[in-house]
Amino acid sequence: MTLIPTLEQIQASCPANFLADALTILFEHSPILISNLYPQLTRILPTLPLLSSYSQLIDVSLNQLGTWDDKMKAQFIAGHPRIGESKNLSKLSAKEQGATSTTAATPPEVLARLAHLNACYEKKYPGLIYITFVNGRTRAAIAEEMEGKLGLEHSLSPDDPTLADIEPVAVGGPGWTSELDRAVVDIGLIAKSRLGALGVE
C-alpha cells in the first residue's frame, strides 16, 4: 500500500521533501509540480492555520493552480498518464485505471481504441491530454466518453477517424480553455478519491 507522509510531516519545515512526496502521490509527478507548486506551497502553508485534513491540502494546491497561466496548467495535467496506458503507472493510477493484476484485463481492441482516441484528442486539443475522473468505470466506458467528447460515433476501430480528419481547436480559445479547466477540476477529484485508497481524509 502506498503511504503518504503525515500532515505533521508535511507541515514541518525539515525535511522538506515530505511535502513534495505528498504532492506526487496525490497529483502524480510532473516537473512543474516540483518547480512551481511545491515552492508556492512551502511559502503559503506556514501562513495558514495547521491543516486538519489532506483534503484541505488538495484545496490549497488547487487554489494555487488557479493562479497559473494556461501553459503551466497544461504542463501540470501532462503529469497524469493517458487513459489506457499500462506502462510506468504509479500504483494508484494503475488501480484507478483497472490495470492491476486483481482486475479483469482490458480487451486489446479497447486498448487500441483508447490509444487512437488519445491521439485524436491531442490533435483536436493541442498541448492537452485527456484527463477524466474514472471513478471505478471501465476503460471501455471511458472510450465511449472520449468518443462523445470528440463527437464520434461509438466504434472499436483502431484508426477511425483518421487524424487528418480531426480539426484542431485554437489553443487558448474557449473550447481549448474549457477542456483545460475541466481537466484541472478532474485532477482535483482524482486526488480526493485517492485519499480513500490511502486510508486518510
Could you explain the architecture of this structure?
The protein has one domain (7-83, 105-198): Orthogonal Bundle (UraD-like). It has 201 residues and is mostly helical. The chain is globular, with a radius of gyration of 18 Å. It is built from nine helices and no strands. 26% of the residues are buried. The model has no long low-confidence stretch (mean pLDDT 89). Helix 2 (17-27) packs across helix 3 (31-44) and helix 4 packs antiparallel against helix 9. It has helices at residues 7-11, 17-27, 31-44, 54-65, 70-77, 91-96, 108-124, 139-150, 174-198. It is 55% helix and 0% strand. Keywords: Purine metabolism. It comes from Armillaria ostoyae.
The sequence of SSEs as H and E is: HHHHHHHHH
The number of domains is 1
Helix fraction bin: 40-55%
- The fraction of residues assigned to DSSP E strands is under 5%
For the secondary structure, the number of strands is 0
Tally of separate helices: 9
Domain Oxo-4-hydroxy-4-carboxy-5-ureidoimidazoline decarboxylase: 17-151
InterPro entries: OHCU_decarboxylase, OHCU_decarboxylase_sf
Keywords: Purine metabolism
Organism: Armillaria ostoyae
